[in-house]
Each structure stands twice: as structure tokens, then as C-alpha cells.
Hints:
9% of the residues lie in helices and 41% in strands. The chain is mainly beta and 116 residues long.
Amino acid sequence: MSVVENQKDIPFDIKRVYYLYDVPGGESRGAHAHKELYQLMIAASGSFRVTLDDGQEKKSFYLNRPYQGLLVKPGLWRDLSDFSSGAVCLVLASEVYDENDYIRNYRDFLAFKKKQ
Ligand code: TYD
């Protein structure tokens, strides 16, 4: 069993939880950034890859342990790929859903990073 407690294990209040499942093998998800949102991503089952891009460099994280989480801070372009069959991506999020917090165009993302 793994436990995540508000503020104790993660640096934000959890306002939303969602999970991705039944992602067909070879399909990618993500391809966006968030302006304010913090997230903790967990491979609750199976495995997948998270590639984070701060506009200058990319880092790739292979998540395959249900007791590990990846903290994804705001202002990072993310791609989720290489989902194994049966993978479940559990996401704990610092805000409720807000489409205005998304940057869905990579050029807009780079412009946003330049302004920061
Ligand atoms: P999106 O965040 O783009 O998914 P992914 O990163 O997995 O590709 O969301 C996909 C769709 O689901 C989009 O139309 C918005 C909707 N959605 C909600 O309504 N509430 C949510 O909490 C999330 C994460 C997505």
C-alpha cells in the first residue's frame, strides 16, 4: 500500500485526482503545459514514459513503480508515451480542471517561457 497525504508528502493541496487508463499501446498523451498547475504523476499500474521540457532542455522519466511519483511543476511541456498494456497513470493535481491554465501550442509555450 502507498499513501499520499496533503502537504506532508507533496508540496500542494490536492484539489483533483484523475487517472488515465486503456491508453492504446503506442499512443501518446499530454503535449501541453500548465501555467499554474502542480501535479504528481504515479504509474499506479504498468509503466509509461514522461518527457518534460522546460523550453531549453528535455528530461525523460520512466515511471514503472506504484510507490514512486513524479512531481511536475508548472511551466513544463509534457509528453506521456510508451504506455504498457494495462497502465494506469494516476494524477494528483493542485487545482480543479481549468482549460485556461493549459498551453496547448508549443510555440505559445516557448513564448510563455520567454516572458517568465
Ligand atoms: P487532457 O488534459 O488534454 O488529456 P491528456 O493530457 O491525457 O491528453 O484532457 C483530455 C480531455 O479531458 C480534455 O478535453 C479536457 C478533459 N478533462 C476534463 O474535463 N477534466 C480533467 O480533469 C482533465 C484532466 C481533462
